[in-house]
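User: For a benchmark we're assembling, each entry needs the component sequences followed by a predicted structure for the full assembly. Here are entry 17's components. Please fill in the structure.
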Amino acid sequence: MTLADVLIAVIWSGLTAYAVLGGADFGAGVLHLLSPTHLAGRRRQESITTAMGPAWEANHVWLIFVLTGLLTAFPDAFAALGSAVLAPASLALVAIVVRGAALAFGGQLTVADRLQRPVRLAFGVASVSAPLVMGALAGGLARQRVIIDSGRVSAGGGAALWLGWFQLATGLMALAACTAVAAALLATRSSGRGEERLARAFRRHAAWATAATAALAAMALALSSSEAPRLHSGLTGRGLPAVIVAFLALAVTAAALRLRRDRWARGGAVLAMAGMVWGWGLAQFPRLVGPRVTVASSAAPPAELHAIAIALGAGAVLLLPSLWLLHGAFRRAAAEVTR
Amino acid sequence: MGTSLAFHLSFAVFGVGLPVMMLIAEGMHLRGGDPAWRALARRWSKAFAILFAVGAVSGTIISFELGLLWPGFSRVAGRIIGLPFSLEGFAFFLEAIFLGIYLYGWDRISPRAHWLSGVPVAISGIASAFFIVTANAWMNVPRGFKLSHGHITHIDPVAALFNPAWPTETTHMVFGALLATAFGIASVYAVGMLRGRRDGYHRRGLALGMSAAAILAPLQLAVGDLLGRTVAHNQPAKLAAIEGQFQTEHGAGLNLGGFPIPGHEHAILNLRIPNVLSLLAYDNPHATVRGLGTFPKADQTPLALPVRLSFLGMVGIGTFLIGLSVWYWLRRRRQGHGPDRLTLIALVAAGPLAFLANELGWMVTEFGRQPWVIYGVLRTDHAITTAPGLGAIFAGFALVYVVLSGMTVWLLRRLATGAPAVLQAARDLAVAA
Ligand code: HDD
Ligand code: HEM
Ligand code: HEM
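Assistant: Structure for entry 17:
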């Protein structure tokens, strides 16, 4: 294993963290949109926004970690990606921005404000579109059809990259998986607080979302044999263990939700998401963008890779204790609230 | 793209400056126990939460655009100077984490621990600026690699990081951000005083802003002068555009007008002070300053007029800010109960002007470097994407920015409504007692 392989694994772990944590944020937005506006629904919305509130900025940094990591360690892959994905990435970006802004502003608004409804709607719509577009984009990239010739996209870019039946399936799958993670998380939190009615509602959503994820994943897998043959052989080859883990985890989630084992359901949903991300990654390793841009061919020179590895280590030494402090502070605050 | 950066910058400036001001105010409370200081710090932390969120959102846009709009730049710069971009991500992460603790910690953790939790926020804000501006300094004075036949070899990321321009450029930026925040704060409380709110809360807010300003404004002039020398040594064509210098000259004078109008060979409306430019740029009154006209057309910035105007604007504002802080502190010794109307009006204007100076400074750097993105290495037209549909995307983001700015201003105005009620109540109690 080369240093470049290690770095791409670290970046892929960052992507996994984003899919789980950022995905939970998106899913929470979906649930927010789905919850009714009458009084009980409002309680549900409240519990969603308080669960999300302080964590948003920190969760979001994982995406930035992935982007800057690619820029620094795999500049050619980053440039190739940039040339190929302008439209869908801009769309996802707008959704992220609208969501972030709505969340930041919504926290300052009271129920009586006239702006409350449009902000809420914008938040919900953006939360649905972001995972949809990113899932479609991921599906499109996983097909490995983008060809880069001396810095320019010569085939496989444009609308054909992210608009298609296979991409629709992966987009919907991402949406469902995000919703499943969020609902399982919120169910755990509500039952932990003794709010059984809320927990039941979230469990119901989680069960539907888990079933949908499994169905869409199976569909995408089936479609891939004709729509994405390169990916298909990867998924049934090197990526197979991760694929199996993902399906097993979905089964565990469904069972745990029936048995009201919320923690197990949460763990299962998170593991399923991780399994999907790693299934994709392992299936196309060592190719990064299309068939030509690989880990080795796009990596920065060794001096830069070493500098990055050192910076990552130093960063982790600073970040991990800080994260621990943050979560400690919030847990204590939450404990006080329940008391 | 310039729009995104200019937008991001107006928030990034707060990200650097406001935590420092919060720490000072809260520290004053810790030392003297005066509740007004704590109330100030707390109010600022609320405003900062909003500004930070918008700053983060616009920063995310930028990191996308780096790949989407400037693939050519990413390919060249990523492998040499990518490191500070990643490090900026770390600094931002730390800032977000400790800001979370700081915001939630009011009333929950001990005052001293709370103050301490603010320290990493301030440090990482400054680190953020440091990393990004170091990358920009490298774009101005690229080092740490060899270029042979269009291929980049012998990459040394550390040498790239510590290029000759980093110390002055980062210091100038950090001071600029602190200065803009200091005058921004002074400006807010000057508005309050003009509306007749001359209580201790407003007086302290203004005094803190003006104390920081009085220290920083002269320092900024000195650092700006150093930065000008860095430019003179490394980017002579930029210097010529900045100074409106058309012909090569021994013992060049400082131009006090001198607008480069396209099609004219001479700077017009000029007034010059003999030998001063040579002295300022090269420490020698008889040094030679190369004129803009002597550079090949392909290496001259096509934006000489905006560069010159922005530079004059920045220096003009800087001079005004120094003058204003001197004036404020001289008058204050004589007037016990706050400044007079005219001074207050000048202070209100100073806040936005200090922000403008930052934006103008960036225009100088960026327009002045054209036609290069990486000076002498990569031309701008090779860096930018060739993908179709740029116009629509650009319009979309412009719209996003307009909406974001509108909402931010609206929310901040809602926050800024006089001294908090708790303080008012405390004062009423004190009066009653
Ligand atoms: C409050 C803000 C502010 C103020 C009062 C000043 N500046 Fe400035 N200036 C900046 C904020 C700024 C900036 C936005 O921060 C820049 C843009 C890039 C940078 O690093 O700093 C900048 C750039 C910049 C450059 C271009 C550097 C380059 O292209 O590499 C020069 C030569 C100066 N400044 C010089 C001055 C002088 C002589 C000033 C005299 C008062 C001055 N600045 C006041
Ligand atoms: C408020 C601050 C800034 C403003 C207003 C600004 C504005 C601009 C403008 C107008 C251009 C030239 C575009 C052209 O002539 O085609 C440019 C180019 C560029 N600047 Fe900045 N800039 C700012 C800060 C920065 C910073 C901090 C960085 C990086 C560290 C940066 C990186 C770049 C790059 C990479 C380009 C070339 C990209 C392109 O060609 O579009 N800029 N900037
Ligand atoms: C005055 C100092 C600053 C300047 C000139 C500046 C400029 C930039 C530039 C050019 C980028 C794009 C490069 C990249 O992708 O890394 C960027 C990214 C970003 N900035 Fe800033 N920034 C400054 C300070 C801050 C502060 C204080 C914050 C915190 C609110 C912030 C938040 C971000 C975020 C979240 C990103 C995207 C993350 C990243 O890419 O690392 N910036 N900034």
